[in-house]
Design goal:
With 226 residues, the chain is of the alpha+beta class. The protein is built from six helices and ten strands, in the order βααβββββααααββββ. It has a five-stranded antiparallel sheet. A three-stranded antiparallel sheet has the order 1-5-4, covered by helices on one side. The model has no long low-confidence stretch (mean pLDDT 93).
């Protein structure tokens, strides 16, 4: 058991998770299991190599649950996003010794994004606020009685999941401030995000997206399904 508590998700989503340590032995175990590091990471720091390998390990395990048995490595696309097999969608997140991958089919969903973050300290959170949210968004967390650190971490993760879900559809980078929190539904564990910028003909200003979330230990996890 990994102890990772993920947001509620439908049966059409398959997931795999892993707790890992950043050391040479962990990397050796992952590569011995068939995970291949790309040339671009050959000289990267050990932490980056282990995170990449752990994420790809989870992705392969999740894909097997959908019936994809290929051991060929996932290619890397723009913004380092993995290129999934035809007919499949997926998303990977890793950090703080945790890795998770979720996958589904293009028949079931149009977009999929997952993210896991460690909850920031208040000292680390405050300098990030202006880059992540507006004063109106900050007030949503204040009304709910959440600390700045917890709220910033949750919103950061939610917007990361939204980016991962939308990027394959819009084909362009967009910023944290291109989407805003318009509602927090704590009983449903859902943050509603609204686009403040049109990103494509199908993803226009005013579009609403529900991002589900969970909290466990010192972490938050978010999931965006389209």
């Amino acid at each position: 058991m990994t102890g990772i508590i993920l947001p509620e998700m439908p049966e059409s989503i398959r997931q795999a998770s892993l707790r890992y340590t950043v050391d040479a032995g962990q990397l050796a175990d992952l590569t011995a299991g068939g995970i291949v590091l790309p040339e671009s990471l050959a000289s990267a720091a050990l932490k980056r190599q282990v995170e990449f390998a752990a994420g790809r390990f989870c992705a392969r395990a999740a894909l097997r649950q959908l019936g994809y048995e290929s051991r060929a490595p996932l290619a890397i696309g723009q913004h380092r996003a993995p290129l999934w097999p035809a007919g499949c969608l997926g998303s990977i997140s890793h950090g703080d010794g945790l890795a998770i991958a979720v996958v589904t089919t293009t028949k079931a969903w149009r977009g999929l994004g997952i993210d896991i973050e460690r909850i920031h300290t208040n000292e680390a959170a405050e300098p990030l606020l202006e880059h992540l949210m507006t004063a109106a968004e900050l007030s949503v967390g204040n009304v709910a009685g959440l600390s700045i650190a917890h709220w910033l971490s949750l919103v950061f993760s939610a917007k990361e999941s939204l980016f991962k879900a939308l990027y394959p559809l819009v084909g362009r980078y967009f910023d944290f401030l291109d989407a805003e929190v318009c509602e927090l539904q704590e009983q449903q564990s859902c943050i509603t995000l609204r686009l403040v910028t049109s990103l494509s003909p199908s993803c226009v200003k005013g579009s609403l997206y529900c991002v589900r979330y969970s909290c466990f230990s010192s972490n938050v996890a978010t999931l965006c399904l389209l």
